[in-house]
Amino acid sequence: MSESITSHLSTRIRELYEHELDHQVSAINYHLFDQTLILILEGTVTPPEQLLTRISQKDLARQVRDVLDRLVQPQIRTLIEEVMNVEVVDFLSDTAIESGRTGAIAIFEFRPNLPPQTDRQSTSAPGSA
Amino acid sequence: MTENLPTRGQLERTLSQRLLAFYRQQIGQQPSKVTCQFFAEKLAIILEDSITPAEQVLAQEGKKDLAEQVRNGLDEATRPLLKSLIEETIGIEVVDLLSDATLDTGRTGIIAIFETSPAVRNPESLGTTRSRDRSAR
């Protein structure tokens, strides 16, 4: 993926987390192959969820995370469609509360027509936009 | 030394075959297709037609919430075994295993994060991770 697209997408995803959850994601990693985009978001779990996990309320933290993911994930799907100008036909995502890592798989209708680049994998950290 | 190692493609094919057998044995549903793709110390797995007929019936009969509960239960039950299968096949510890399924499409997506990149004959095909944290700001 081109750096401009990952940079733009990362900015929009960070804005989404900040707007909806007042939370900053620490890093976003992308990998594109065929009609599939993999996103790895680091640092997505909020301080209240982390605290619940620390005090052995992991089931409650998991319930909180399910609700937050249901809020955020459809919006990430829409952002991907807007930024990459391609329809997402399936969007799968999960979060590991202990590590604070969210993984998402977006399946496209077609392989997106993106500018040429040399590396299929790219990482975007804050401030790189 | 490295000539004894599998290529990335061989490793992905071996794991795909084992995953087909795993799902057939564990939940009686063999996916129609498995795609495995390594990238650095991460692995993406996509299973097509991974939802059992029982779950499909529940979803078709308007019991989608129950179908999702069943799916979550199956995922929960198979997760430790799936993690072991991946670790045994790849030979590296899995530090995170993320998975989700869509009832409507029958597709399951899994992302495994490893401690390190797998040992393969063609490591250049795995790409590299250029991760930075917030302190890099």
Structure description:
The complex is a heterodimer of chains A (129) and B (137). Chain A has one domain (3-108). Chain A is built from 3 helices and 5 strands; from the N terminus they run H-E-E-H-H-E-E-E. Chain A has helices at 3-21, 47-54, 58-84, and strands spanning 27-33, 36-42, 88-96, 101-108, 121-124. Chain A is elongated. The mean pLDDT of chain A is 89. With 137 residues, chain B is of the alpha+beta class. A 4-stranded antiparallel sheet of chain B has the order 1-2-4-3, covered by helices on one side. The radius of gyration of chain B is 17 Å and the shape is elongated. The termini of chain B are far apart. The model of chain B is unreliable at 129-137 (pLDDT under 50). Chain A binds chain B through residues 24, 26-27, 29, 31, 33, 36, 38, 40, 42-43, 89-96, 99, 101-103, 105, 107, 119-123, 125-128, and chain B through 35, 37, 39-40, 42, 44, 46, 95-102, 105, 107-109, 111, 113, 127-134, 136-137.
